[in-house]
Fold this sequence. Notes:
The chain is of the alpha/beta class. It has a single domain, classed as Alkaline Phosphatase, subunit A (3-Layer(aba) Sandwich), CATH 3.40.720. Helices cover about 35% and strands about 15% of the residues. It is built from 15 helices and 13 strands. It has helices at about 10-40, 60-70, 115-120, 125-130, 135-145, 165-175, 190-195, 205-215, 250-260, 270-275, 325-335, 350-355, 360-385, 460-465, 475-490; strands at about 50-55, 85-90, 175-185, 220-225, 265-270, 285-290, 345-350, 390-395, 400, 435, 440-445, 460, 470-475. The strands form 2 sheets. Strands 5-6-4-3-7-1-8-11-2-13-12 form an 11-stranded mixed sheet, with helices on both faces. Strands 9-10 form a two-stranded antiparallel ribbon. Strand 5 (about 265-270), helix 10 and strand 6 form a beta-alpha-beta unit.
Amino acid sequence: MKRMLPEEPAMRFALSFAKHLAVVAIVGWCFSFTAHLAAKEAAPSAVRAKNVIIMVADGAGFNTWRATSMYRGQLGNEIYDKPGWIQLAVTTYPLTTSTKPEGKEKQNENLVYSPQKAWDPNKGYAWLKSSATDSAAAATAMATGIKTYNNAINWDDRDRPLTGKTLPEIAHELGKSAGVVTSVQWSHATPAGFGGAHNRERDHYAEIAREMLAAPYLQVIMGAGHPEYDNNGQRKSGEATDKDCRYVGGLAEWQSLTAGRHPGGWTLIQTKEQFEKLTQGSTPAKVVGTAQVATTLQQARGGLLGIVVRNEPFATPFNDNVPTLATMAVGAINVLDNNPQGFYLMIEGGAVDWANHANQLHRMIEEQSDFLAAVEAVVDWIEKNSSWDETLLILTADHECGLLWGPNSDKTPFDPVRDQGPGKMPAARYNSTGHTNSLVPLYARGAGADLFRKLIRGKDPRAAEAWGISGEFVDNTDIFRVSRAVLTGQNLAP
């Protein structure tokens, strides 16, 4: 019989206990891993949208939206006030207010939105005016998620094009179609930025137009800028020159479009009837629509002798040879919706900004009303032909313009705009002819709209009080972050 050493019983017990511990640990690990997988499977997955539509009322701060709703008799009852809409504010400041790249790529902290600076009764107006973005830097921020200097079209502060980083380029990589629509020249800053052009300077219109026409990622381009017509929709005498054609890429580019032999395969439409026909039925694969008017669809039109008279909204007869923004929007969607993979589209009410620059309250109301009619048309398309589960709609502005406040706002800063009733001009006053760093609205509904709630960067109590909103705000770069996330079906990038 084998003799047991004194240590053996203790050793056996230790070994047995260790085995039990190992089994328990393995079972525990398996349970933990299984629970982890279950939790991972139960967690909400990233949202994917088939379509993303961004609508920009250029230069429209909160008081532009509110004043127009007052005139319409719809304050608090607009389509974006209905259930299901996210309502926030947006900061719009640029990286720098330089008009050239500085090579620093460092945020100028004095430009970052500050409620304390913005609402200062003594210095607020001056700070808001001096720290504002332009449309180029704002479009770049929303189309790429990158802040840059004023004047830049998808170009960074280190003097590099942001190639491959814009929303239309991302949509193209995903097999989707893309387009831009505007009520001003289609090579202007906002459509250029959202259309994926890349340029150091926004005023290089011919270069920008040629890049847009050559881009493989655009299937729709629409706007004004016709070289052969004036602001009243009247045909100009004489032949169009290269300068006349700068907004459409130059004379040679225009001639190739009108002859139907552009290498990009574009179909050119020009007449109001052609735009209207595009809203239903079969369409060409790629459409460039250049309405028969010079700078804007309607804002720059004159009355007798071509003079813009300051009168009531809608008093001056409209140009009758051009489409509305709503018609253009629906036509663009009808083209882009041919792609079963979906699309990305930017629609701009560009002349809202032009009216505010000119301090034309009556024309601003006309232009913002036209924009809101386009919003209603897009919502109607979503609800009849798509769904809120597969389409994300974002309404916003690139910046405020005009520092629009109430009638006594020159003496009492931030005096509120006064409602005079439906069909009557609100009592208001402009305090600037330029852009400001004021908060602007953001209204979103549909696939992934709730993601904006995860990106709130602060709260402005004075904004909440002045405009009857929550006061919570995101940044304009967050519009890109949410759009990219839902286009790709990935989680929000940091």
